[in-house]
Amino acid sequence: MNERRRAILEAAARVIARRGVRGLRVEELAAEARVSKALVYYHFGDRAGLLRHTLRFIGERADRYTRGRPPGRGEPEDSLRELERRLLLELQDVPGVRENSTAWGELRASAVFEPELREELRQAGGEWVREIADLLGRVDPSAPDAALVSAAERLVVLLEGLSTRWLIGVLPTGHARELMRGAVTAEVEGLGRGVGLPERCPVGRVR
Amino acid sequence: MNERRRAILEAAARVIARRGVRGLRVEELAAEARVSKALVYYHFGDRAGLLRHTLRFIGERADRYTRGRPPGRGEPEDSLRELERRLLLELQDVPGVRENSTAWGELRASAVFEPELREELRQAGGEWVREIADLLGRVDPSAPDAALVSAAERLVVLLEGLSTRWLIGVLPTGHARELMRGAVTAEVEGLGRGVGLPERCPVGRVR
DNA sequence: GTCTATAAAGCGATAGAC
DNA sequence: GTCTATCGCTTTATAGAC
Predict the structure, then answer these.
(1) What is the distance between the alpha carbons of residues A60 and A188, in angstroms, rounded to a whole number?
(2) Strand D closer than 7 A to residue A41 Cβ
(3) CATH, residue B69
(4) S-S: A20 plus which of A129, B27, B68, B113, CB 3.0-4.6 Å?
(5) What whole-number distance in Å separates Cα of residue B39 and Cα of residue A71?
(6) Is B203 a member of any domain?
(7) What's the pLDDT at A71?
(8) Which of residues 14-33 of A touch B (CB under 8 A)?
(9) What is the span of the domain harbouring residue B111?
């Protein structure tokens, strides 16, 4: 990928995190990337094209810090702990993370009115769910697949909701993280008891 | 309240649901309300004032269809059923409901960048949580208050997340409702076992 | 590929009559 | 309270030189 292209996308992420998709002005973005306005149009066609590419760019960048990188110096990590870590990763008061979360949340919200962003979001969401479902499966290997997927979907969607409220500022970081952890616990417990399946056994089995 | 004022606010909700906050053009809104542009400014000062008033208007309207109105002809409703009904109310493919949800979600999302919307959102969110916590308390009267509130917060935030994905169109209505129901079940079960509290007893009591 | 300059349109906001 | 008319800035997008 061209170096300028990348610079523009990085600037776009920054500006979206600062002003929102609604507040994104091609001129501000160009200044931020130290590039002329015309170059932006040259590379991305129009505003909508720019948004599409930025969405993908941000998604890939999130992948990079979400996947991989265990926290310690190589001790094999408990599955439950890894699950929590992954889900809590987005709820951190660290500038880079916050920027990515803000921009991603903004693009997700604008997708309600911009259908061309949907496919990308659907895909990214699907991958997230599969990964979380995998981790849940390692925590409770006896749980049926459908239960794992449902639980994962709920956790991922909850995270999105928490993220929005956290970014708005009506939910302090610590509280958001606590709620997320609580949900993980509740879902894992639920898996063990067979709760939350389409057809469920009301007083589930014991492992 | 003035009749025209109300007409303008109704039109604003409709236009926001159709085009988003960013897509709201005072001119379109005025046309929709069959009113002149100048009248909008006369009543609400400026664009921002209009948005503030619209947020409150939409919130009150949501209250009206969320609270009250039991479904049957007066059979006393099971608390658990009422809880589910309340939480599922927003996830319906009914034009009026969808319009309100869309506009509300849009305003919530824009609050990340418009601090003057926060107070209203914080309040509305708080009331929601209290109501859901109350219902949870009726389902499980022995659960401690802190657990009720945490569970309620998770349910409300999950609903917001589901709503967004549902409105984007990446989550079909039925699936969203199923996930919501599953979460209610998981949380209620969790209450019974003392799961998800700050300090929790790992193998909870039995009722 | 990248820039400067400019067209073209959009849109928020106000003035002033009724 | 409500309208018509209009101002003037902002913002997207393109033309054309290098």
Answers:
(1) 28
(2) yes
(3) 1.10.357.10
(4) B113
(5) 59
(6) no
(7) 63
(8) 19-23
(9) 3-193
State pLDDT tens for residues B129-165: 999 999 999 999 999 999 999 999 999 999 999 999 9
d(CA A191, CA B189): 11
Under an 8 A CB cutoff, do A159 and B164 touch? no
End-to-end CA distance of chain B: 51
The answer to whether position B156 is within a domain reads yes
A89: three-class secondary structure by DSSP: coil
Report CA(B47)–C1'(D7) in Å, whole number. 18
Q: Which two tokens stand for residue A110?
A: 């604008």
A84/chain B closest Cα distance in angstroms = 14
- As given in the structure block, the two tokens for residue B186 are 């998981």
**AA letter at B50:** L
d(C-alpha A188, C-alpha A192), whole Å: 7
Q: Determine contact, residues B40/B28, Cβ cutoff 8 Å.
A: no
Q: What is the number of structural domains in chain B?
A: 1
CA B179 to chain centre: 17
Q: Residues B90-102: pLDDT tens digits?
A: 999 999 999 999 9
Domain assignment of residue A198, yes or no: no
Q: What one-letter code names the amino acid at B46? A: D
**Residue A200 resides in a domain:** no
% of chain B at pLDDT higher than 70: 89
Q: Rounded to whole angstroms, how far apart are CA atoms B132 and A98?
A: 30
